[in-house]
């Protein structure tokens, strides 16, 4: 390691390694959000004069990042105008009767679509449809949700547009002097990877996917079944009579949420804090059994007759009877409210919704919800008015897991959106327009034709992804400027001398896989691509072959829920355990490590 140690002993090299080590620590521990860690790294490298300011932030002006921002908007216009309604209808149809047929549909249809549309919005859109199919068919969501994520990941390398990682790799390749990647550069390898991965998923679904059951995963059903949703009466002599909920002990002393107040024929919904209670009022409470027993002993409340209680519960579950609805929402990775307690968020005031329960993996939290610190992957059970639920559909911090198609206005702009999205692919393919120009023009057309409103355009962009990818370019620039990439490549060359091209690509691919699972796909690209291309040049092999190896390894994560955004999105709703994903994904990961380097060798004739 002489060359690397020499470079690391230089002041700029030592500072760069220290910043890298800090960034890796923060990525692994999650003490800071990934995008904040990237911004911190860029700031430190400028502060200690390793990079100039324009060098540290040049990634924010890259064509790849601008293209990605436009793709988020085009995808939003396509989804919100109903451009993929036929796919949603096909997934929910009676023709799909078994988990294997559902997985086959995902492999045959969803995966190719994810080759041209970022896979995160695809999973967000199809997740409630698949869950609804599971409940109608009596199928455990754990048998089909992980294949949904894997199918979109496998399809993501069919074209340059499939993932943000592909676009970042194209940008880094251009910075290194090897030129940007074309729209279908990956297709010759991406299609075999998609087909082989699809066959594996069909074979392994019965053997390696767990069956977590159906009823226990239904938060609404379990809440009602276990008595956490209860209707009570305010009796004569109750301390609640003549007081507002805000001034009573009901919510200050006990962990109780009042969801609804019924007074004669009138029904009042949250917020209810300032409403004065009267004898005979009916309250729908969320509380545990111990609290309910204590309230009854003190004659603060009494239970309603069982028949009325059941009728009230049914009313709350049917929107035709009341405007209040119960829905499940997912807290996605990158949400701005992660790491904050429900109380500090002022959740009810912020979203006009009452939090009833939180599902975290296999654990369901129902007590002291105000103290719960929200985490990415949590599934929240909410009660809210229908208008508030519709508002959640346009919120990037929460992903609605219940279908509200009937509530959404119909649109006649569906085919406009489909045509615009198709031209984004066709025009660059025939060299009529540059890819970035085609995407930006598509965004303008989407807004001009009403497929996407200006406010929706701004909300559709995943700013956490943009900030992360833009700031990560400082890593690649620093590795090259300090000579660390070249020095590390020289040292690795000594160990790889005499190896076949396949063997070297295999080693590079496996290292990139490990980096992706431990850190993130974007970090893997910017850290390893300069080193991999230097190794290729030292061995007189095509650098582009190694760029492909890094990109494919970084774009496909199947071992952990934290390795890829879509894996985390299905982790909670599927009630998976950490090792469930590892068991199902490990054979696929090993298979790709063997097959992809061989496919790359065939493509480049090495």
From TrEMBL:
Stored Pfam families: CitMHS, TrkA_C
Membrane disposition: Multi-pass membrane protein
Primary residence: membrane
Keyword Membrane: yes
Keyword vocabulary terms for this entry: Membrane, Repeat, Transmembrane, Transmembrane helix, Transport
Location in the cell: Membrane
GO CC, any one term: plasma membrane
Key word ATP-binding present: no
Residues that span the membrane, as ranges: 12-33, 60-81, 144-169, 181-203, 415-448, 499-532, 584-601
Biological process according to GO: potassium ion transport
A GO term, aspect molecular function: monoatomic cation transmembrane transporter activity
Ranges for domain RCK C-terminal: 217-301, 314-398
Protein name, entry field: SLC13 family permease
Organism the protein comes from: Cyanobium usitatum str. Tous
